[in-house]
Structure formats: structure tokens, C-alpha cells
Design brief:
With 251 residues, the chain is mostly helical. It has two domains: 114 residues, no CATH class; 115 residues, no CATH class. The chain is built from eleven helices and no strands. Helix 1 packs antiparallel against helix 3 and helix 10 runs antiparallel to helix 11. The longest helix is centred in the middle third of the chain and has 38 residues. The radius of gyration is 21 Å and the shape is flat. The two termini are 21 Å apart.
């Protein structure tokens, strides 16, 4: 029987981040004010969590997650201002709810976790790595995208009268910047977990060289500064999540 809430919490966090940032499409995220879309998303969260935990007899877990996640997302869908603050508060509330739920379920029901009993601590470590990787790679993209969106609007506004300059913002691949950010955070995550964080320095140097030409061009300076700000946010966030994950894996 389980005497520690951390294995259950690791499973719930992995399921939460997967359901919120990998299994949820942009369309779903934007239309969760519709009750059927919200209920479907909450159902996916509860099912993935139930499968990851393997607490087959503890139906209270998916039921509580369906209700709790649904209520939190419903509240978020009603707020249209200050997207960065709303995102941070929403994720903090979700994580806080999962911590409270894990402690309560373990103390009250002490459920047997099938996968933890089968694979031992390796399953818990895997869940921590999955949660950390998704939070770093995918959730990080959403967070940084929201954080830098005012800068992009500023650039677009100032260049509105200059068609060539404005067009420069559109010259990249569709979602190319998003994919680059995901790749760089994935590399950072792997390097830190492999015990070679010094490799991140080479990654920073390589990206700086690629952007140096744009900084020299005065017409592209604003765009280059926007990219550099986003890059440093991405690197900093990726490093933070990678080191936190490594800490909890070895905890």
C-alpha cells in the first residue's frame, strides 16, 4: 500500500501537462467557453490521469479531477484580460489542486498504484521526467508566447505604414519560431538530465551567431531584439525546468 503521496502526485502532474499541452489542440483551448468542449477536455484529463496512476479501485481520483479541472478551466475561460497573469494563476491553481488531491487520497484511501507496484521507483521517475519535459517544451512555448506577444504587437504597430518592414515579420515558416523554441528547450532538457549542462553554452553561441546579421541591420533591429528576448526567456525557462526535474528525479 502507498504511504507517500509523491508517486501519485507525479502521475497526476504528468497526466495534467500531457492533457493540457499535448493532447489539447489550439482550437480546444480557444473554445473551452463552450460547455461540451470543456467537458470533453476534462474527461480526457481524468482518463489519462486514471491510466497513469493505475489506481483501478480509486474512482474518486478521475471523478475529482473531472470536476476540479473542469471548474478551474471554466473560471479561466471567463477571464479575457491580462493573459499572462491568468495563465500563471491557472497553472498554479491546477498544480495546487493536484497536490491537495494527492495528499487527501493517500491519507484517506491509501490506494495501490498498479504501475508503481509493478515498476517501483522507476515509474515515478518516468512520470517526473514526462511532467518536466512537457512543462519545459510545450508549456514553455505557451508561456513565452504570451509573455512576448505585447512586443510583437508593438513591432507590428510601428511598422504598419512600412509594408516591406511589416512583411519581414511574416517571412518565416508557419509556426517555425514555435518549433525552434520547442527544439532548443528539448535539447537543453536532455543536456541537463544527461549531466552535461555546459553544452547549453554552445547552443546559445550557435543561435547568437545565426542572429548576429539581423542585429547589424537597423531595419531589422526591433525584430532581432524581439527574437533575442524570446530566446533568453526560452533558455532561462528551459534550464529552470530541467534542473528542477533533475532535482526531483534524484530526490
Amino acid at each position: 500500500m502507498l504511504t507517500d503521496y509523491r508517486p501519485l502526485l507525479a502521475c497526476l502532474l504528468a497526466a495534467h501537462f500531457l492533457a493540457d499541452f499535448v493532447l489539447q489542440s489550439d482550437r480546444t483551448a480557444e473554445t473551452k467557453s463552450k460547455i461540451l468542449v470543456l467537458l470533453r477536455h476534462a474527461f480526457i484529463v481524468s482518463v489519462v490521469s486514471y491510466l497513469f496512476c493505475g489506481a483501478w479501485a480509486a474512482w474518486i481520483i478521475p471523478l475529482a479531477l473531472f470536476l476540479g479541472h473542469g471548474v478551474l478551466d471554466f473560471c479561466k475561460s471567463r477571464i479575457r484580460t491580462r493573459p499572462l497573469a491568468v495563465f500563471l494563476i491557472d497553472q498554479t491553481a491546477h498544480i495546487g489542486f493536484l497536490i491537495a488531491l494527492s495528499i487527501w487520497v493517500v491519507e484517506r484511501y491509501d490506494p495501490a498504484l498498479y504501475w508503481t507496484n509493478l515498476f517501483g521507483d522507476d515509474w515515478t521517475r518516468l512520470m517526473i521526467i514526462v511532467a518536466g519535459a512537457v512543462a519545459a517544451i510545450y508549456a514553455g512555448g505557451v508561456l513565452i508566447g504570451i509573455a512576448v506577444s505585447p512586443l510583437l504587437k508593438e513591432i507590428a504597430g510601428e511598422n504598419a505604414a512600412s509594408m516591406p518592414a511589416a512583411a519581414s515579420l511574416l517571412r518565416g515558416l508557419d509556426k517555425g519560431g514555435k518549433l525552434i523554441g520547442q527544439l532548443e528547450r528539448a535539447i537543453i532538457f536532455l543536456l541537463v538530465l544527461a549531466g552535461h549542462p555546459e553544452g547549453v553554452g554552445f547552443l546559445i553561441a550557435a543561435k547568437s551567431i545565426l542572429r548576429f546579421g539581423e542585429i547589424k541591420d537597423a531595419k531589422q533591429r526591433q525584430e532581432a531584439e524581439y527574437i533575442i528576448i524570446g530566446t533568453f526567456m526560452s533558455f532561462g525557462y528551459g534550464l529552470l525546468l530541467a534542473f528542477l526535474t533533475r532535482y526531483f528525479v534524484s530526490f
